[in-house]
From TrEMBL:
<keyword id="KW-0347">Helicase</keyword>
<dbReference type="GO" id="GO:0051539">
    <property type="term" value="F:4 iron, 4 sulfur cluster binding"/>
</dbReference>
<dbReference type="InterPro" id="IPR050534">
    <property type="entry name" value="Coronavir_polyprotein_1ab"/>
</dbReference>
<dbReference type="GO" id="GO:0043139">
    <property type="term" value="F:5'-3' DNA helicase activity"/>
</dbReference>
<keyword id="KW-0378">Hydrolase</keyword>
<dbReference type="GO" id="GO:0003677">
    <property type="term" value="F:DNA binding"/>
</dbReference>
<dbReference type="InterPro" id="IPR041679">
    <property type="entry name" value="DNA2/NAM7-like_C"/>
</dbReference>
<keyword id="KW-0067">ATP-binding</keyword>
<keyword id="KW-0234">DNA repair</keyword>
<keyword id="KW-0511">Multifunctional enzyme</keyword>
<keyword id="KW-0408">Iron</keyword>
<dbReference type="GO" id="GO:0016787">
    <property type="term" value="F:hydrolase activity"/>
</dbReference>
<dbReference type="GO" id="GO:0006260">
    <property type="term" value="P:DNA replication"/>
</dbReference>
<protein>
    <recommendedName>
        <fullName>DNA helicase</fullName>
        <ecNumber>3.6.4.12</ecNumber>
    </recommendedName>
</protein>
<keyword id="KW-0540">Nuclease</keyword>
<keyword id="KW-0238">DNA-binding</keyword>
<keyword id="KW-0227">DNA damage</keyword>
Length: 933
């Protein structure tokens, strides 16, 4: 049996005599059942006592296979031979991190801080891994190499590598894989027939013997990772280095051992599946999964096949098998515990923990530089001088904030198994009970999986990377999948086929990883002068220029001028519909005309595409768009740098572009981190966390931030009270901080081109100090009957004013209000009946459940969505559903800025549908009801 729950008290290590000699023990008090049960004592024996060195009350502990004993009427627990002790099992450590921690704990920390850099060995390693996967899937070697080299074209071009030479090198590595695969299949007696068969077809895997890359998450051991391959249930790790010793390298064994643990747990779950009749809703048997772990691991050192036998001595066979004994698996768990414990108190490893020799370490320079900047102890020593106190404080504060956010992402992971499929679906984080209707292998070996479409709502959108499973994302068979279609059919693509029964939101850490590297790059790598404004050491400076850029809007003209004159930073505050995008495009042109290279970036792909469209409208097309095919709008694909191609050509296009457009998230990619710009223009800056903004800002000499801090705030997953509120610094955007700190560096666009006078009045008064005005008389006086074929008289009397309030006297039931939904649909229908095209009508509701409720009956063509999905767009008619009847809770009420966004989407007519009494309990909503009535 297992015990899992918070630690109450940690005892000291004692040495005792037992029948088998002397042994160490330590007693720990904990509350099992995740803290629900009374505290019990569990005795940790032998090496597990080390755990107490870093175990603190409050931390979560899990002990598997405990021995239960009654002693003087109290049940006591103890570890036994098969037990594993896991510290903070909810903190999911990445397998590659366990590997680097074993090499040197400090390396783990540095990798996390500074991320990967664009370097040839890394790019080549990726290509070899991809080709390995292709070979396992039975693909032709030459085709695979050609395609994978082309896919790395941009990176190779930036590194100035010749694709032919790279292909030749990859081929050398691949020969090691091929040779070993051949050997693997031929020695397989059961598979002899298929082996003979496969030698003709290439090296296709023997059925059920192989799997290429597999995503694995362990709910017991707090580990996650992707194994390169699995052969006969055992992990196979590919290394593109050479190793002429008989044994695999220790850290490589550790990595394979981690996968073995993960596979063991999966084997247990799969075992359970044989008897499961409930569509894959298996539970993890409460046993010792390490028992099920495979006993052999394989390391494949592909460079061994490429070295000259005359020059090297030793064991040149690429494949090295080793046995995965229980001792090694326990060592892996203890190592993983060290990482989880260090992350728990956010301490920093020094490198002295390891036997590693700094003089051979290729991280030595980074190690010393980081130690120097942060005045940290490190085995490698320090270079350079420490950053000032305030910068240090800033670094620490954001470091903690980002780590708190990481924990929130981990909690999302744990929900994959803590919540049932139904709960996940209810939370909008999964689509369950899908009916698979087909699987097709696409060119290049990827699979297209299809299921019947579903009317269920979820956060999952086309283009997202999700977990596709046959019923359970952790305990079932799962693949990382890209969502291609979510309509009549659900279509996803994966590396390996899986029965498509469920999709889950994939909680990715990439956002947190990139915030951390952005923090590192901005604070530790930039010059003191470059950071002066960020840290308030001096005011932003501006040069002279009296060019007129926009002649019909003074504030817009001032904004362009400010951006052009800025030496450090300019801030453009653009309330709804004030021509932010138009001004942004004009600014880009003005900067390019001055010979500057511009990074054009925004929080969402949609905003990036809108900015490109505005540039196109202004006759400017010298743009390279970075992004994935699904992320970029179909009509903007022509600007997109292709995913593969000739290295020189791709790198040339990127280098020569005067405008590079990308989301801020992709500014943290290895390729983008290599780029430098004169100016970074950041749209939607009010929605970005400070470190996410820094990812773009650090790439340029100066920045122009465009946004509106009265609209949606940064998206942060950590709740206000998580980790003692550590994530709070992420809630204020850099835009908001700077505009408050340096009002003179900003300009507000006060004239809006969207809403009628009546519609904009409330937002102007509540959120913009009455400074928002219609840009023209025409804008101010627009009405619904300006639309061709629409008669105001055809509307019911209560909807004839351009702002209306409807109280349908409904009742909230959880996240829906069916009566209100019906009233919303009725209202929409009135507009359609009066001649308004459905495409001109939008409905905003606070919850996806209410969105679904309305969507069921709304006329086709009407857009129904949550407010977060509406930011940045507008419609002639907007209907807002508030759902709440008794108390005002829910996302729309948490922050007044959401209501600002909702109310400012409408151009000609706005209808609020809600409970007047409930809304009246809050002063702002009360005033809103008064205004709308
Ligand atoms: N100076 C101007 N002269 C004429 N039309 C303008 C001017 N500025 C903006 N517009 C027009 O006003 C409309 C709104 O502009 P734009 O889309 O740039 O607004 P926005 O502030 O980006 O909107 P959002 O709040 O959705 O981000 C567009 O049709 C745009 O062409």
């Amino acid at each position: 049996m297992q015990l899992r729950g918070p630690v109450v008290e940690v005892g000291d290590i004692r040495t005792v005599e037992t029948s088998r000699g002397t042994s160490d023990l330590a007693e720990v008090r904990m509350r099992p059942d995740s803290g629900q049960a009374e505290a019990v004592t569990v005795t940790l024996w032998g090496k597990w006592t080390e755990t107490t060195d870093y175990l603190d009350p409050g931390m979560e502990l899990l002990v598997t296979n405990v021995e239960e004993d009654e002693f003087r009427g109290e049940i006591q627990y103890a570890t036994q031979r098969e037990s594993m002790v896991v510290v903070e099992p909810g903190f999911l450590v990445d397998v590659t991190d366990v590997r680097s921690w074993v090499q040197c704990p400090r390396m783990y920390y540095l990798n996390k801080l500074s991320g990967l850099e664009l370097a040839y060995p890394v790019v080549k390693g990726t290509i070899v891994h991809e080709v390995f996967g292709d070979l396992l899937r039975g693909r032709d070697l030459d085709d695979a190499i050609d395609e994978r080299v082309a896919e790395a074209g941009l990176e190779l071009g930036l590194l100035d590598k010749d694709p032919e030479a790279v292909a030749a090198e990859v081929r050398d590595h691949a020969s090691a894989i091929e040779g070993w695969l051949r050997q693997g299949t031929l020695t397989d007696t059961d598979g002899a027939a298929s082996a003979a068969d496969s030698s003709e077809r290439g090296f296709s895997p023997v059925e059920n013997e192989w799997r290429s890359e597999q995503t694995l998450v362990s709910e017991t051991y707090g580990l996650k990772g992707r194994a390169d391959a699995v052969r006969r249930g055992g992990p196979v790790e590919l290394k593109t280095g050479k190793n002429t010793k008989r044994e695999p390298r220790f850290q490589d064994k550790i990595q394979a051992a981690c996968y073995a643990l993960l596979l063991g747990e999966q084997a247990v779950a799969d075992g359970g599946a044989e008897t499961a009749t409930d569509g894959g809703q298996r539970s993890v048997p409460d046993g010792d999964h390490a028992d099920e772990a495979p006993d052999t691991g394989t390391l494949l050192y592909t460079k061994n096949a490429a070295v000259e036998r005359t020059e090297e001595t030793g064991d040149l066979s690429p494949a090295k098998e080793f046995s995965l004994g229980p001792g090694l698996l326990k060592f892996v768990v203890r190592t993983r515990n060290e990482i989880a414990a260090m992350e728990h108190d956010v301490s920093v490893p020094t490198g002295f923990e390891a036997d590693a020799k700094c003089e051979y370490c290729f991280e030595q320079d980074t190690c010393m530089a980081v130690s120097g900047r942060l005045d940290q102890e490190s085995k490698a020593g320090q270079v350079g001088s420490p950053i000032p106190e305030d910068e240090r404080e800033y670094f620490d504060r954001f470091y903690r904030a980002i780590e708190a956010e990481r924990r929130a992402v981990h909690r999302e992971y744990t929900k994959l198994w803590r919540q049932s499929g139904e709960e996940r679906a209810e939370d909008d984080r999964a689509l369950i009970d899908l009916e698979p209707i087909g699987q097709t292998e696409r060119d290049g070996g990827r699979w297209e999986l299809r299921a019947q479409g579903t009317s269920a709502v979820s956060k999952i959108r086309e283009g997202d990377v999700v977990l596709a499973s046959d019923g359970h994302p952790v305990r079932g068979r799962t693949e990382l999948a890209r969502v291609e279609e979510l309509g009549e059919e659900v279509v996803v693509t994966t590396d390996e086929p899986v029965e498509l029964r469920r999709l889950d939101v994939y909680p990715s850490e990439i956002g947190t990883d990139r915030m951390l590297t952005a923090l590192h790059d901005a604070v530790l790598k930039q010059s003191p002068e470059k950071k002066a404004v960020l840290f308030g050491r001096r005011e932003p400076e501006f040069g002279e220029d009296d060019t007129v850029y926009i002649d019909n809007n003074e504030a817009q003209n001032e904004a362009v001028s400010l951006a052009v004159r800025a030496e450090d930073v300019a801030l453009i505050h653009g309330p709804p519909g004030t021509g932010k995008t138009y001004t942004l495009a004009r600014t880009v042109r003005a900067l390019v005309e001055r010979g500057e290279r511009v990074l054009l970036t925004a929080f969402t792909n949609r905003a990036v595409d809108n900015a490109i469209e505005a540039l196109e409208d202004q006759g400017f097309e010298d743009i390279v768009r970075m992004g994935t095919e699904t992320g970029v709008r179909p009509d903007m694909q022509a600007y997109r740098l292709p995913d593969s191609g000739d290295p020189q050509e791709l790198a040339g296009r990127l280098r020569d572009a005067s405008v590079v457009a990308a989301t801020t998230a992709s500014c943290g990619s290895t390729v983008m981190r290599e780029q430098s710009f004169d100016v970074a223009l950041v749209d939607e800056a009010g929605q970005l966390t400070e470190p996410a903004t820094l990812a773009a800002v650090s790439l340029a000499d100066k920045s122009v931030l465009v946004g509106d801090h009265q609209q949606l705030p940064p998206v942060v997953q950590a709740a206000d009270d998580d980790e003692g509120g550590a994530a709070a610094p992420l809630q204020t955007s850099l835009f908001e901080r700077l505009i408050e700190q340096y009002p003179d560096a900003g300009v507000m666009l006060g004239r809006q081109y969207r809403m009628s006078q009546r519609i904009q009045a409330f937002a102007s008064r509540e959120f913009y100090d009455g400074q928002l005005r219609p840009a023209t008389g025409e804008v101010a006086s627009q009405r619904i009957d300006d639309l061709a074929g629409v008669e105001t008289d055809a509307l019911p009397p209560n909807l004839r004013d351009s702002v209306a309030f409807v109280d349908p006297d409904g009742q909230a039931r959880g996240n829906t209000n069916p009566v209100e939904a019906a009233a919303v649909v009725g209202t929409v229908q009135s507009y359609v009946d009066a001649g308004v095209p459905p495409e001109e009508i939008g409905v905003i509701a606070p919850y996806r459940a209410q969105v679904a409720e309305i969507n069921k009956r709304a006329p086709a063509g009407v857009t129904v969505d949550t407010v977060d999905r509406f930011q940045g767009s507008s419609k002639a008619v907007i209907v807002v559903s508030f759902v709440a009847t008794d108390t005002l809770d829910g996302p729309i009420f948490e922050d007044y800025r959401r209501i600002n966004v909702a109310l400012t989407r409408a151009k000609k007519a706005l209808v609020l549908v809600g409970d007047a009494d409930a809304l009246g309990t809050d002063p702002v909503y009360g005033r809103m009801v008064e205004w709308a009535r």
